[in-house]
Structure formats: structure tokens, C-alpha cells
Amino acid sequence: MTIKGTFERLSGLATISRHKTAFAVTPEVIRIKSQEAQLNPRKREILALHRGETDALQRMLNAVQPGSYVRPHRHLCPPKAELLIILSGAMAFVPFRDDGSPDTQTFTLLHPTRGSLAVDCREGIWHTFFALEPDTVVCEVKAGPYDPAADKEFAPWAPAEDAPDAASYLASLEQVFRACVTG
Fold this sequence. Notes:
It is a single chain. The chain has a single domain, classed as Jelly Rolls (Sandwich), CATH 2.60.120. 16% of the residues lie in helices and 32% in strands. It has 2 helices and 12 strands. It has helices at 27-39, 166-181, and strands spanning 7-9, 14-17, 44-48, 57-64, 73-74, 82-88, 91-96, 108-110, 118-121, 126-131, 136-143, 153-154. The longest helix has 16 residues, at 166-181.
């Protein structure tokens, strides 16, 4: 069976691996998920590695292309920390203060050779992340179970993903990030 044949489509945004014993994250898996993210209107794709929404530990690959806007959010109720580990490309991790201002002191560049390899975000911290290079893939880990209605609280001061000003908001965040991190 091919790698692609082992993925089951969950939604227009995600697939799941139905492996029985172990699943190796190979360059081919990264390539496939990056291609799917390129074709996805949201410019990102998830590959769930956990068995399902009720698992106590949610593990996934998140393939993100430049221009994909992840609305700032936090995991507060229930409180959940989030770990991001870079596998390919480059990603900006941007935390915020409660007033919506970016916390530039804790910006993190995730990059295999020029930045950090992982970032752990405590529960209740407003944050977003975005791709700085094509074919960026991170491994994301959070506590489960996954409840779409309560998984995240979106920041009231940030535009919704489908808002007309979402792209300009993302561009301004990227400009601030690049100025702070790359100097």
C-alpha cells in the first residue's frame, strides 16, 4: 500500500493515519502533505496521527504554506498547552498580550538550522503561527480530547479567517515578526 493510501480524509482540512502499530514521518509524507496544503484554499492541511478525537494526546502534522492565516487564539477552557516542532520550512510563532499587542520578546523562529526546533506554548496564551517558507510542516502536540466547540477561543481583536482584512493583518504580523527576529 502506498503512503497516500494509508490516509483517510476526515474533512476538507484534514486526513488521519489509520496505522496499526507505528507510523514513520518520512520526507514523502512531508511532500504529500505540503502538496495537499498548496491545493487547499486555506493553504494548510493536517494529518492526525492519534486514533481519534477522544484520545488523551492529540498528535498531528500541520502543513502550512505562506499566506495561510491562523486566527490568533488560545486554549483556555479547558486549559491546554501546545507544542510545535519544526520538520521542514520555517515558521513564525507569535504570542500576544491580552490587549492584542504582539509580545515581541517571545517571538520564536522555528527553523531546522537558523532558529529553534520547537516551541512550547503554555495554556491560555494568545498566539498564532504562520509559514515563512513554502512547504513548512510542524508536528503539533496538545492534550485531548478534541472538542471542536471548545478547542480554542479566538481573539476578539483579530479578524476572522474569512474577513476581508485577514490578509492585511497577516502581512502586518509577518512584517513585525521579520523586523524583530531578523533585525
